[in-house]
Amino acid sequence: xxxxxxxxxxxxxxxxxxxxxxxxxxxxxxxxxxxxxxxxxxxxxxxxxxxxxxxxxxxxxxxxxxxxxxxxxxxxxxxxxxxxxxxxxxxxxxxxxxxxxxxxxxxxxxxxxxxxxxxxxxxxxxxxxxxxxxxxxxxxxxxxxxxxxxxxxxxxxxxxxxxxxxxxxxxxxxxxxxxxxxxxxxxxxxxxxxxxxxxxxxxxxxxxxxxxxxxxxxxxxxxxxxxxxxxxxxxxxxxxxxxxxxxxxxxxxxxxxxxxxxxxxxxxxxxxxxxxxxxxxxxxxxxxxxxxxxx
Length: 295
Fold this sequence. Notes:
Elements: H1 13-21, H2 28-38, H3 44-52, H4 55-65, H5 79-86, H6 88-100, E1 109-110, E2 113-114, H7 115-136, H8 141-150, H9 153-161, H10 163-170, H11 180-187, H12 192-202, H13 207-215, H14 227-242, H15 255-265, H16 269-285, H17 287-290
Antiparallel strand pairs: 1-2
């Protein structure tokens, strides 16, 4: 990769983390929903109470609950009914998505990047992760959708708080030839994974969220316990990139990480291809969720 001359001073990671954590980057209600996600004693009533405290969130969640993705025969008009028909876990995933999408509402284009396209990518990865997890039968269904939604939160942080550096990364002459994290490391001095790892760590979120945001490109380097979740996210990322869905960091696949992910999940390339063929239909069914950041 050719070095790029810029007038930008590389920021200090710790100082950037302090700047981000001094404000509420992740919506308060999203943090509350994540707390419920990690608490085995939380109930449907707890979740309903949190959701109902935000009328806009309630409206978005009910809209999603009635989307073709769930194929319900009866229209849902209240949160309690959504929990009954869709289940506690699904409503938690939808509530987190409906609250987090606020961060992605920005139509500014920088090269090939739009924040709303990053949202669509995040939802795509969440849906692919769910499909991969169900096929793998590794018992990851409780985590993969939510972690898929949040896995690229570090990109939004760089966009928001290091915007000039972000522009330099995305307008690099070789921006489509190299992984985004390589360009970030060259121009900024750290990657979106590094930044999100430190910020998420300061929020005291469940461990799977920190793992997801900090290592989703490198399942081969993770501990044995963390590898299944990261393998799911890596394959989901690869699938979305392969069909050019949403914001694509790179179309190039790292052979080592791809093969390690297949081995961890006991998948073949044919398994991935079959899942990939089914995803456009699943994406279309989830259009209401995809469009949240545009509405």
